[in-house]
Amino acid sequence: MKFPFPLPQSWRAAGDAPNAKAAPVAQPLPGDPDAWIACEHCDTLHRHEVIALDEEAHCTRCGVKLYRNQSERLSVLLPLVLTGLIVYIVANIFPIAEMNGGGNRHATTLWGAIVALYDYDMLFAAVLVALTTVFFPLMYMSVLAPLLIARWRGRQHPAAALVLRAAALIRPWAMVEIFMLGVVVALIKVARMVSLEADAGLWAFAALTVFLTVALSIDLRPFWREIGLTLPPGSHVDAPTGADAAARPGEDRP
Predict the structure, then answer these.
(1) What's the rounded Cα separation, in Å, for the pair 249 and 66?
(2) Where in this protein does the record put region Disordered (predicted)?
(3) Angle, nearest 10°, between helix axes 160-170 and 136-152?
(4) How far apart are the C-alpha atoms of 185 and 148, rounded to whole Å?
(5) Which one of 16, 124, 142, 161 is separated from 116 by 20 to 30 angstroms, measured CA to CA?
(6) How does pLDDT run across 172-218, given as a tens digit for each residue?
(7) Is the model's pTM score more than 0.90?
(8) CA–CA distance from 231 to each of 33, 109, 117, 172, 220 (Å)?
(9) For the chain, what are the domain ranges?
C-alpha cells in the first residue's frame, strides 16, 4: 500500500525497504524494575528516590504528586486495624437507632437495615450495602492484621505478597464513610416523624468510619519495599513510556 505522503522511518514495515529491521516495541528497564515508578497522569517514568519523612515527590513533566514518604506511619496502622476490628464487632452487634412511634418501640441493627432492603425488593441495594460496609471493610482489616502483627514482631508473614495483593484489590471497595453519610441523612429525616434515639451501634459505626478512613489513607507501597517484594500493579510499568527522568521531591511543574 502506497501513501501520498512520506511515512516516518519508524512507521515503515520491515519489507518496505531493503535490509530494514523492525524496531523493538519496548526496551527492558535498566537495573531493578521496582526502582521505577510511572506518573498516573502522563505516564512519565521516574526512578524511585528516598525522600524525607512526609515529603512528596512530584512528576518532572506535569507536576502531579507521585508518592509521599509515609514509612513511619506503618507503625500506626496496626493499632488502627486492631481497634477497627473491635469497633466493627460493636457496630454490627448493637442497634444503630431506636424509634418510638405510635406506642411502638423498634430498634434496628446494620444487618437489620440490609434485611429490610431485601424485604422491600431492593436486592441490588442490599447486596451493595452488605459488600461495601460489612464484607470488604472486614476483609481489609482481617488480611492486614496478621501481616502487621508479624511486622511488629520483627518477622515476615509467609504469605505477605498474597496478603498485600488482596488488600490492594479490596481497598477501593471499602466505602463505610458513604454509608455513614447516608445513615445520618436518613436518621435526620426520620427524626422529624418519630422519636429517634441514637444507639451504641451508630457511635461505633462512626468511630469505625474514622479509623478505617485513616487506615485507608496510609500508603502501603513502603511496606512492599520494606519486605522486598514486587510492587503491586499500577506502581510501576515494565517498559518506559516517557522520558527517563528521576522524581524530584517537591519539584513543581517545569
Answers:
(1) 9
(2) 235-254
(3) 150
(4) 36
(5) 142
(6) 877 777 777 777 777 777 777 767 777 888 888 889 888 888 888 77
(7) no
(8) 10, 40, 40, 17, 10
(9) 28-70+235-254, 73-218
